[in-house]
Design brief:
Elements: H1 2-19, E1 44-55, E2 58-70, E3 75-85, E4 91-103, E5 113-123, E6 129-141, E7 144-156, E8 163-174, E9 181-189, E10 192-204, E11 210-220, E12 227-237
Antiparallel strand pairs: 1-2, 1-12, 2-3, 3-4, 4-5, 5-6, 6-7, 7-8, 8-9, 9-10, 10-11, 11-12
């Protein structure tokens, strides 16, 4: 009975993931970090992320700088400040974010590893809030790993129309070696389907210290207009 319940729960989750992109409006930049479901006990980290979004109308450059750490064996809390350069070339503080990652099950205990993500964002000079929640799933197949992110997003405030959004991200990665792991990434939102190559690298030091880097170049394939995104991230854990 336990196995049957798990089967139905997983089937329902996959069904919801497939429906997410078609049931909500998503007008933001979908390309960003692909989250993994793991939390290391006592982990602390600093992180910097960049996303350059190029379209026919111009380029939007967004950067995140943040840090945080584990609050227990399965949860990690991080805070970010977000800066953005608009089409006019002006760069400034855009938003604040608070993020909670939750490893739901012990790694390797089930057929796949599960986690959850909760995020709250506040625009700097606007009465605009954004809450994100969703599942993070990862499964290893030999020397490859498949990671799936499925998020629901709700925006509200006096300076924005209240609305639901959705995002789906996938990363299929070949663990060639620790320092270089090539991947294929897919991002899906309302009126957006993007795909492209990426890679992850990891350099371990003493104890839990490690430096992780990521990059990806994503091209939209759902429309004919130019729509390219380049993402880059550095993360130091200690």
């Amino acid at each position: 009975m336990k196995a049957l319940n798990l089967y139905f729960a997983l089937s329902f989750t996959v069904f919801c993931v497939l429906l997410l992109p078609t049931q909500a409006n998503a007008d933001g930049i979908v390309v960003d970090k692909v989250y993994h479901p793991y939390v290391l006990p006592f982990e602390r980290e600093f992180e910097w992320r960049l996303v350059s979004h190029q379209t026919d109308s111009g380029n939007i450059l967004a950067q995140r700088l943040g840090g945080g750490g584990a609050i227990n064996d399965t949860m990690a809390l991080e805070g970010y400040i977000v800066g953005e350069r608009d089409d006019n070339g002006d760069f400034g503080l855009e938003a604040y974010e608070l993020e909670l990652r939750w490893q739901l099950i012990e790694q390797g205990k089930l057929w796949a590893d599960w986690g959850a993500l909760f995020e709250l964002e506040k625009k700097h000079n606007e009465d605009v809030y954004e809450a994100t929640s969703g599942f993070v799933i990862e499964k290893e197949f030999g020397k490859t790993s498949l990671t799936l992110n499925a998020f629901l997003v709700y925006e509200w405030g006096q300076d924005i129309q209240n609305e639901w959004e959705s995002e789906f991200r996938a990363q299929y990665r070949y663990r060639y070696r620790s320092a270089f792991q090539p991947s294929i990434e897919v991002y899906v939102g309302e009126d957006f389907i993007g795909i492209g190559p990426g890679f992850i690298g990891l350099q371990r030091f003493d104890g839990q210290k490690q430096l992780k880097w990521e990059a990806g170049f994503i091209t939209e394939i759902s429309q004919s207009e130019k729509n390219h995104s380049f993402r880059l991230a550095l993360e130091f854990e200690f």
